[in-house]
Amino acid sequence: MTHLPDGRYVDDEPFDPQASLLELERKDLDAPNWLLVWRKFKTHRLGLISGIFLLIAYGLIPFAGFIAPYGPNQRFSEHLYSPPQSVKLFHEGEFVGPFVYPMTSEANLETFQWEFKPDTSRPLRLKFFCEGSTYNLAGFIESNRHLFCASEEATIFILGSDRLGRDIFSRVSYGAQLSLTVGLIGITVSFVLGIFFGSVAGYFGGRVDWMVNRVIEILRSLPELPLWLALSAAVPSNWSPVAVFFIISIILGILDWPGLARSVRAKFLSLREEEYVRAAEMMGATSGRVIRKHLLPNFTSHLIASATLSIPAMILGETALSFLGLGLRAPAVSWGVMLNDAQNLTSVEIYPWLAIPMLPIVIVVLAFNFLGDGLRDSLDPYQQ
Amino acid sequence: MRPLLSVENLSIGFGKGDSVVKDVSFAVQPGETLALVGESGSGKTISCRAVLRILPKVAQLRSGRIILETRGKKLDLATLDERLMRDVRGNTVSMIFQEPMRSLSPLHRIGNQVSEVLWLHGRKSEREARNVVLECFERVGFPEPERTYRSYPFELSGGMRQRAMIAMAMVAKPDLLIADEPTTALDVTTQAQVLGLMKDLQRETGMAMILVTHDLGVVANMAEQVVVMHKGRVMESGPAEPMLRAPAHPYTKALFDAAPEIPDAEVVAIPPSRDDLILEMKSVSKTYTLRAGKGWKAPTLIHACREIDLRVTRGETLAIVGESGSGKTTAARIALGAEPPDPGGEVLFRPDPSRPTVPVHDMDRESRTAFQKQAQMVFQDPYSSLSPRMRIQDTLMEPLDIHRIGTRSERREKAAEMLRLVGLSPDMLKRYPHAFSGGQRQRLSIARALMLDPALIVCDEPTSALDVSVQDQILRLLEEIRDQHNLSYLFISHDLAVVARIADEVAVMRRGLIVEQAPPETLFYNPQHPYTKALIAAQPEPDIDRPIDLKLVAQGAGAPEHWPEAFRFNGSDAPPLVGMKHLEPGHKVRCHA
């Protein structure tokens, strides 16, 4: 450091004016977009946890039969409305490993309720990788192995049993198969429609844009619930549960696309103003090339985030329809169908575990919302 | 005298990274102006934001003291309690931000936003505050303070908004005003007026000022003390006059040399020859129809440009200079065929002296493709002109891809060659654009424009988003490439000094019309039109002895209806563009001869 006589301070470390030209200013941003998004997403803890949770949840769907100790429609007529049983480890201060006490049910003739009494003298250990009812692993491999089951003399109802004596835990795991995938199918339908109409409107503008916008506005102005009801009431009642399931998801998708189409259109319009798009157009690139190479890659992440945020609406939609008895019907099992049993307030009051299928719905919907939030926050990784 | 504000050994860092501001110290005396000078990323904004503690969330003040000594109190702003800090902000220390378009709330009336400062600091009743604000508005040069009080930000132009911001900062009579690049987003003439206003106000109120800028020209006009920063460190600091007369640090020297200057032309230049034209625009006009807000009113016509006659000679540069909204970009877009001109206008392009001219707006598919190969554009914003998803190599190879030229390895070869040509290294091919600085990105977009070996390049304000030092490098690069490859440029700029070195002919535009046209030397030697004179006078130069002449600026930059008789516009009627044969060859002025 030097001080000049006129009071100036001059730094005297060596200085190379040319150095900056070949140096990268932001080494941290030198990566493909997905990597930058991932790096930023990682810092969003709630989103990350939700993402992992959903990944595990969807990963386990094919193995629902393996996790559930019983089949979805397997009945235990001795155990109607059985309360949740707890799995214990210690019997009279002694370690026995995971076990349950066998339950005996008895009708109380004064209150007309089923009363369950655990037989605390007989700890019965749980069995692992045991044989039980047959099911199809991932839909086609026939198997009868279960992760755990109770010994022959006892039952295991972790979340209790319902009106017909079916295990709620097993039904929740089977119900996940339909409840979780209804959103995916719905969102695919809504995605295809939304991207198509949105990009057509955004790219061509003018009359086409006007038409699409009016259709969107009309669809949005229709009250949603009655429309769902009307459409699902139109599904013939003699169709198989699987066909009903597909129709329901498609209905949900058809009613959901306007929102997506709007955001696609808005994104299209704003991206078209970017100078790299103009540059490509001026170089003589065809519209197809501009859309494919410049527009689409630059809003895929945006699309994924908005899709993630609209899946919960689909799941809730299915639940609502099934709850009202207009969506999926027994013998199909979904969380909404299970909640249909909880319509009777009195029985919920006496057997509160009937409302347990609400829990997975709440958790999954929250997880999707957190994940979508996290994705949306990390969409633009270039800002500080 | 004790300094009003002294910053000692300030260090600031983001997250776990290295400090971005390292050991910075400076002091501001009461009533003085201190200029913080540096390029973007030098830490100048962060340092002055630290004074008000309005840093981004991830930033941490790692060390240092910020002592504010005023009204008999001595406060350390680095450690001051957040509640007491609020009393300092806007009251003792206030700030003006860079973007006048974004720093006012669009939903509130200007007057309410400005009086908010007074309400917050709880000194005035509403009526009193209003009177103070109106007085302040009058002082910052609003012709009708009452009307301004009631208007919304969108009703004001950029310069007027910046005046409103100044009023907001000044209304509580602060002891220290921090101005963060207050004029960077403004046109040259507006910049001169705003700077003049700030200087007047300072003289009147005796407040101190910290002026953040990247332009030594602004410093020379405003500051008594200068701190030059680079990469978070102070390179040189001290009184402005000796520093600008003899910069001691090589970085200051570089900044000094890079500042654009209007050359002192002694001779009249010979206009470029007219026999080998590459591009010719013949009476090109463009009118946009704006649907009126009310259904029963006729739509408004907006004349973006009117009767433009321009010729670009092969191997030379024609510059169009004008403020924002003068129609220069529209002219360029028409020249490239991106928009059709109004009927009657014509653009002719001759890629090769041996070939016939082709009309740009009346081409078949084949000649259109050929034209798109031979005419390229360099864009203004280096941050949006490269697709963030594509590696540099894909971006550079895209033009060849579109026109199906060469194999993949040949294309890559060519891309590497172009990178070398623009001064970058070929191993940057695999990188993504966001890793680069603004200057490097502008080089990349020049490289992309060169990929197809064009004959004509339209540069749409290629340097206006860049720092002064980088701007100089880019201009030099453009000159070198032009001479090496015999390119012709149509160069759009709002800054006369920038085009001074690169242009062979300059057309000055205002309100869609060319008001004066001449080779640059002639223009600087003998400017005729008041607007040109204003542009020249408004140019801030790093020369202590050449202050901005505000009178000339005010006269020429005002509305064309107030120009001197001979040049005056009457509504949409303008005087004709006449050649000044008796003065100099090739010099045209829009006036009643």
Question: What's a quick, concise take on this entry?
Answer:
Chain A is of the alpha+beta class and 384 residues long.
In helices, the fraction of residues of chain A equals: 40-55%
How large, in whole angstroms, is the Cα Rg of chain B? 26 Å
Please compute the radius of gyration of chain A using only Cα atoms. Answer: 29 Å
Distance between the termini of chain B: 59 Å
Mean pLDDT of chain A: 83
Largest sheet of chain A: 3 strands, antiparallel
Mean pLDDT score of chain B, rounded? 86
Kindly report the oligomeric state of this protein. heterodimer
* Strand elements of chain A, count: 9
Structural class of chain B: alpha/beta
| Uncertain stretches of 5 or more adjacent residues of chain A | none
User: What is the N-to-C succession of helices and strands of chain A?
Assistant: EEHHHEEEEEEEHHHHHHHHH
Q: Count of helical segments of chain B? A: 20
Low-confidence stretches of chain B: none
Strands of the biggest beta sheet of chain A: in what spatial order? Answer: 3-4-7
> Largest chain-chain contact?
A-B, 41 and 57 residues
Shape of chain B: globular
What percent of residues of chain A are in strands? 5-15%
Number of strands of chain B: 22
Category by helix and strand content of chain A: alpha+beta
Q: How big a fraction of the residues of chain B is strand?
A: 15-25%
Written description of the protein model:
The complex is a heterodimer of chains A (384) and B (593). With 384 residues, chain A is α+β, with helices and mostly antiparallel strands. Chain A has 12 helices and 9 strands. Chain A is extended. Chain B is α/β, with parallel strands linked by helices. Chain B is globular, with a radius of gyration of 26 Å. Strand 2 of chain A pairs antiparallel with strand 10 of chain B.
